[in-house]
Amino acid sequence: LLIMPLFLFSCSSEGDRDKDGVRIEVIDGIEHIHNPDVPKYPGRSVTLEEDLTITGEDADGKVIIYKPSVFKVDHKENIYIVDQAEFTITQFDSGGNYFRTIGGKGQGPGEFQFAPAPFEFLPEGGLLVWDYFARRFSVFNKQGEFLNSFRFECDMGEIFFVTDGEICISVQEGMHENTKLFVKIIDRKGNIKKDLGRFKYDMIFGSKVRGADAFGVTIIPFATYSIFAGDGVLKRLYHCFSAEYLIEMYDEKGNLIRKMDRPYEPVEVTEMEREEGKKRFSLSLIHISEPTRP
């Protein structure tokens, strides 16, 4: 008679728990974390301090990086910086000292026809690098030596993480206002293994500028769109929809495993405010040329 009540209590506690004002429940195998309106530590702030400066020159004053852009730091604190001018990835040690250069301009193995980005670290060490113009992923080992490559006939956006056999990426379809955003998991041969579905992508506003070969792009503050972050260590994908206080977490197989939210009442934006915003931000349009595929 004593066993049954204890057993029922144990089961119900797994479904709904409260701690520090946070309510946690599991619905259809997905953990839902409901946070309160007020943060737990409302007075906390973050201060950024300069830790390291890389000048782009070696010890002898020779220029080794001309136009830095995307960068990443590995688990050993080595720093990898994409050079948009030379189509290379320049590696520095944790002290900012030049170590090696990976890739270069060209169409051959280990070379790039466009700035090599995005890129991601491999679980076994080394890099997986995307070449937009070539529609090709290239694989490099720990020593920066080219190993192999494979094609992927889509407009790849971001690499979120890489597992032993699969890659989690975003894919864009369409152009400009008609752009659609998807998240997919592919294998290391470019085959799609799982489609996580379509996500929101309304951040593009633009118009033809000085002819048919230019287009203006900017982000409108009140636009609704999806924001992603990948965790290359834990192999997790985080998705946040800008119109809601909601963060979704996916595991390495692309399964939704957790949702984190808090109370949120969006501020209504009128059509007049939208039009005014478009006019104001059209003054800061970024002019980009349409790329021509080889």
List the helices and strands and how they pair.
Blueprint: H1 3-15, E1 16-19, E2 22-27, E3 30-34, E4 68-73, E5 79-83, E6 88-92, E7 98-103, E8 119-121, E9 127-131, E10 136-140, E11 146-151, E12 155-162, E13 166-173, E14 180-187, E15 192-199, E16 214-217, E17 226-231, E18 236-241, E19 246-250, E20 256-261, H2 271-281, E21 286-289
Parallel strand pairs: 3-20
Antiparallel strand pairs: 1-2, 2-3, 4-5, 5-6, 6-7, 8-9, 9-10, 10-11, 12-13, 13-14, 14-15, 16-21, 17-18, 18-19, 19-20
Can you walk me through this structure?
The chain contains 2 helices and 21 strands. The strands form 5 sheets. It has a 7-stranded mixed beta sheet with strand order 1-2-3-20-19-18-17. With 294 residues, it is mainly β.
Provide a short characterization of the protein structure.
It contains 2 helices and 21 strands. The N terminus and C terminus are likely disordered.
Question: What are its keywords?
Answer:
mainly beta, seven-stranded mixed sheet, 2 helices, four-stranded antiparallel sheet, disordered N terminus, 294 residues, disordered C terminus
Low-confidence runs: 1-14, 204-216, 285-294
Helix count? 2
Structural class: mainly beta
Query: pLDDT average, as an integer?
Result: 83
Number of strands: 21
- What oligomeric state do these chains adopt? single chain
**CA-based shape:** globular
Task: Assign a percent range to the helix content.
Answer: under 10%
Query: How far from one another are the termini?
Result: 77 Å
Strand content bin: 35-45%
Order of helices and strands: HEEEEEEEEEEEEEEEEEEEEHE
Largest sheet, in brief, is:
7 strands, mixed
| Rg of Cα set | 23 Å
Spatial order of strands in the largest sheet: 1-2-3-20-19-18-17
